[in-house]
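Appendix B. Raw example, untouched.
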Amino acid sequence: MVGRKIAFVFPGQGAQYRGMGREFYEEFSCARKVFEKANQILNLDLPRLCFYGSEQELRDTYNSQVSIFTTSIACWEVVKANFSFSPLIVAGLSLGEWTALVVAKVISFEEGLRLVSKRARFMKEACRRKEGGMVSIIGLSLSKVEEICEQVEAEIANLNSPEQIVVSAEKGRLEEVIKLAKENGGRAVILKTEGGFHSSLMDSAAEKLKKELEGVRMLSPQILLISNFIADFQSSPEQIKRNLINQVNHPTRWQECVELMLSKGIDTFLEIGPGKVLTRLLSRISPIAKGYNIEDMKSLKRLKEQI
């Protein structure tokens, strides 16, 4: 990685899969320690959940968030143990922003996991209060998706790439969103989520998170840190808290976050954690930038071969 400008990016909810983190857990003591700490904090058998949990178990909002966060931190520990390079910028998509906070030393892993577990519970409670869902729309412009949202009282939730926009709505309106998207020449599919995240359907969760963060001490980041909510750098602890709260019930602007990193000269993105969602999105945003994921022994070996 000599001469390259590197960003570390971390995945969000939806990246989970059965077996995530298992190889690193078995091969590296630093990864095992992360899972062992998580077990103690959550009083939960997280290795069993991550390695052997069913699709339904892992799709649960609480389970998926604590599992992805813990697995991502375990993967980061493996990166630190195997490479000497450091990132110039860190960022994460939705939940992944909490992983970035730990890497930037804004909060500890222990505090981060405690807060992520609270966030997940608050969001799950909001899902029960107002049944909703999410639709991924491919191939339509932002203005056209905004028109669709206005017609069916839906809300833009994720601005992921030039091709992909995700919309949240109450459950009864999801099929109408899909119908209108297809009528306008796009493709659309309902995502496997428990609710309409990053929308007003999560207002109660945002309010609860605000109260939870009031007594939390955060530090200024030691690495440049980007917020999903403002798609810009954030530095003061109070600003970070506000952005984390607003992120829950407002759109994530991942495409703009990546474009900001590119404008600062980042040419290599290392996706640390389960899956390849962010690496795939990167290829749609910038065909020139290099993207690598780190989640298992195969991806670790591949990255070592590139250095």
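End of appendix B.
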